[in-house]
Amino acid sequence: MRDSVTLPPDASAARAARTWIRDRIDGHRIAVSSEDCELVVTELVSNALRHGQGPPELGLEVLDGHLRLTVRDGDGGVGKVHIAADRSVHDISGRGLRIVEALVDDWGVTSTSGGKLVWVLIRYAGPSDGSGALTTAAG
């Protein structure tokens, strides 16, 4: 299963991303709470808006016992990932990726033709009712 959505290239993208992911993971067992999954998506989409180009695309797929969440943008440069120093109270940028790191099993950035893809893996154990694999929601 693979599903994706192109988000608006403005401040409403994070809210749209949270709603989209919540609709898809509702009733499924993942290694983090739905709120933490929404936090991860918010951080990745916000970074794409701040540092990328064009409207971000949010993707979701099940891959080897994990949910693979991706955010693609049109900026081909991977650049240097900035993570704030643990003790620096003056460094106001870079803390979001520390939160992402703490919540997911793995993450990375990949250059693609026409842009870059930021991905995270979160353990996935299937639907709460045992009915089958994650399915896409309408919309």
Q: How would you explain this protein's 3D organization?
A:
The two termini are 15 Å apart. The protein has 3 helices and 6 strands; from the N terminus they run βαβαββαββ. The mean pLDDT is 85. It has helices spanning 12-25, 34-51, 95-103, and strands at residues 2-6, 28-30, 57-63, 66-73, 106-112, 115-127. The chain is α+β, with helices and mostly antiparallel strands and 139 residues long. Strands 1, 2, 3, 4, 5 and 6 form a 6-stranded antiparallel β-sheet that branches. A hairpin with a 2-residue loop joins β5 (106-112) and β6 (115-127).
The N- to C-terminal Cα distance equals 15 Å
Major β-sheet, in short? Answer: 6 strands, antiparallel
N to C succession of SSEs: EHEHEEHEE
What is the strand content? 25-35%
Mean pLDDT: 85
The strand count comes to: 6
> How many helical stretches?
3
Radius of gyration: 15 Å
Shape: globular
Instruction: State the helical fraction.
Output: 25-40%
Unreliable parts: none
Structural class: alpha+beta
Descriptive terms for the model:
single chain, 139 residues, alpha+beta, six-stranded antiparallel beta sheet, 31% strand
